[in-house]
Design a protein that fits this description.
Blueprint: E1 15-16, E2 29-30, E3 44-48, E4 56-62, E5 71-74, E6 90-93, H1 98-108, E7 129-136, E8 143-145, E9 154-161, E10 171-178, E11 186-194, E12 198-207, E13 210-216, E14 228-236, E15 246-254, E16 263-271, E17 282-286, E18 298-304
Length: 305
């Protein structure tokens, strides 16, 4: 079933058929004696000979409803049959079962199923943020989101993980690349605190990825180990081709091992050169070799209207 917006009126007068020779089953022009209070926008539903065995529903799509400019109608609407109607029979504006069935389709379908009955994808969002995709690594590796729809205004990425880098008690930056671009087309800057006393800054220009946070080294599954890092990355206006693509982030990581290198937190942002391409792919990986997350690491990508 394909849905469409229809129009209604609470003050439409009940009238009669004015076609001089009545209406044949194939006729597509409808004139009535009065259109007082009837909808002035199209389409809307009309009942001919309502509450009788000869009742037919028609959909009005254009016209004024007069003999000089009759309504253009679609016959046998909403499962009824096209019938012959004599001049003078009752005609009224009304509604039918489709007005109740369509909202039920909306309630019972989700996500991309909106295409089954023509509703826009935004009709299915439970608020302004919708989960696009999520990934949980069963073994060590990187995380890539592909075929990102361009139907949202902004992206929000949540990352929780641990790097497989075994080097000491430190942390690895989290690297992000757009649209499989591995060229030196990224620049970033962030500030961070290590434990409670050290405040530092890091920046880079013309590098092969954005650094958008940090996770601890060690390679221990974050669901069983004591150390883990989290990043929240915002990518505004990712779907507007005329704008350069930037990202901002907030991040915190704990090695779960004792002082002095056990906590790190920071914030920052970066830009994807002057690239204005719509973002369709995002790859996430630790910046330290071997550039993989431990099993159990995960990321969730949301679209924001």
């Amino acid at each position: 079933m394909t849905t469409q917006n229809r129009f209604y009126s609470n003050i439409a007068t009940v009238t009669t058929l004015a076609n001089s020779t009545g209406l044949t089953p194939s006729g597509t022009s409808l004139a009535v004696v009065s259109t007082t209070g009837w909808p002035i926008s199209f389409p809307f539903t009309v009942r001919i000979e309502p509450d009788s065995t000869n009742e037919e529903l028609v959909l009005v799509t254009a016209g004024l409803g007069t003999l000089a400019s009759p309504y253009t109608i679609t016959r046998a609407f909403d499962g009824t049959s096209a019938k012959s109607h004599a001049k003078g029979v009752t005609v009224e504006h009304g509604f039918s079962q489709i007005d109740f069935q369509e909202p039920q389709l909306h309630l019972n379908l989700t996500g991309s199923a909106s295409a089954a009955h023509g509703l826009p994808s935004s009709a299915w969002l439970g608020g302004t943020e919708q989960l696009i995709s999520s990934q949980v690594l069963a073994s060590s590796g990187t995380i890539t989101f592909s075929s990102i729809p361009n139907t949202f205004s902004h992206l929000r990425l949540y990352i929780l993980g641990v790097s497989t880098d075994s080097g000491g008690l430190g942390f690895s930056d989290v690297a992000l690349q757009f649209n499989s671009d591995t060229s030196t087309d990224y620049s970033y800057h962030f500030i961070y605190a290590l434990n409670s006393t050290t405040v530092s800054a890091s920046s880079a220009a013309a590098v092969s990825s954005l650094h958008v946070g940090f996770v601890p080294n060690g390679g221990v599954n974050p669901t069983t180990g004591s150390g883990v890092g989290t990043c929240v990355v915002e990518v505004p206006f990712y779907s507007i081709a005329s704008l350069s693509k930037q990202a901002t982030f907030q991040s915190h990581a704990s090695s779960g091992i004792g002082a002095p290198n056990n906590f790190q937190a920071g914030t920052g942002g970066g830009i994807w050169g002057n690239n204005t391409a719509v973002i369709s792919t995002i790859k996430v990986s630790p910046a330290n070799a071997p550039n993989t997350f431990a099993a159990g690491s995960r990321a969730f990508l949301y679209g924001i209207l």
